DNA sequence: GCCATTCTTACGGTTTCCCGTAAAGCAATA
DNA sequence: TATTGCTTTACGGGAAACCGTAAGAATGGC
């Protein structure tokens, strides 16, 4: 089992509960922090002291407060940590459900487990820790079907730009000007219209308002 | 201090942490459930057994799963509970930040405390429990400025209906038919257009897409 | 009952958006 | 260079949304 565990989680109540779960594994010395930057510092220090952590449990979204942070959230934290301590096992404990985001965590960020904050998340967390200890990866059961569901439209950064502009009140006829100003191609009005039509079609939507609602729901914009 | 406490919270990890906080007050027999319907049942039973609860700690949003529920969420639970047990103190523990929603909880639903899930929520929760025990109300510090801010526009249920329809892909020209079918007045297309124009104007928006994005952000739809 | 006020609806003109088609641009290949 | 295939743009007709105005219905006070 793990010897040194670090918890990066801004919600005190959740942090407490994670520590309690670790205690069930006999891990009573888990360290914790409410800030990403501090988490990175502690990991840096642990390497320097030659007593490296062997498990990081982190949330994805950290709320801003008076303390200015370099790292915006869990994803950035994981990226930074992987640079200095690639062997460290990472378990993400978050409410995020967007399959694209979770998929990228495993693929791009090379995390070892993802546990979704949900009804039986404490049991789930326990299971995930057991899996990681055996050098296996873990993904909450409830998400496995979602992650498979490849039919969800893959929004390119171009798509996200378009929908963001709409959600900010830019009129379609004014979008070409914006795109040219930002050197984004294609910039023709027809291309914009066509791209929006493709998005609507593939999601079987009738109106752009639906696209905006959908992207808000899934945190795409 | 409280003798019988019920926790309605669908996230196991959060529920565990709330129980731990209660233990700090010497409350070791707190009951808990992951479902709204079950919470109502337990309160009903406690009245029947003449051993009523004196504190309910509840979340607002409960995720759906295989178990079909009558009560959609915390608000509905509180409404139902107040019917059968008006003296029961209610503490809401949620991540919701929309001032309009929280305001209505205190005013319409007559709750006694609102604790926001955030960085120091465990301490916050402790403070709230102390306040309620002294028959005072409590609101997380971080929300007090927000709640004052009488946010820009008061969305009526009519407004919410319109924006929901748009976000679901209903075309404006088809909205009058829907409104008539559901006996919602006014139902004229002009009234719909006018109402949308008023919303856009008062929020200084140019497009309906912005309304949808705004309402999604603030959990209005 | 009558009038005044407000709310609701109907209607037309204008703008914006939608969508199909065709032309223009561009890159790779022979 | 010419050909081919793909992407991007231009254009135009038609649908939807927007907006002002005015007629009609409902409400409340006198």
From TrEMBL, chains A, B:
Keywords: Phosphoprotein. GO terms for biological process: phosphorelay signal transduction system. Coiled coil: none annotated. Residues 4-132 form the Response regulatory domain. The keyword Phosphoprotein applies. The modification 4-aspartylphosphate is found at residue 59. InterPro entries: CheY-like_superfamily (IPR011006), Sig_transdc_resp-reg_receiver (IPR001789). It comes from the Bacteria. PROSITE patterns: RESPONSE_REGULATORY. Pfam families: Response_reg (PF00072). The keyword Kinase does not apply. This is Response regulator. It comes from Pedobacter agri.
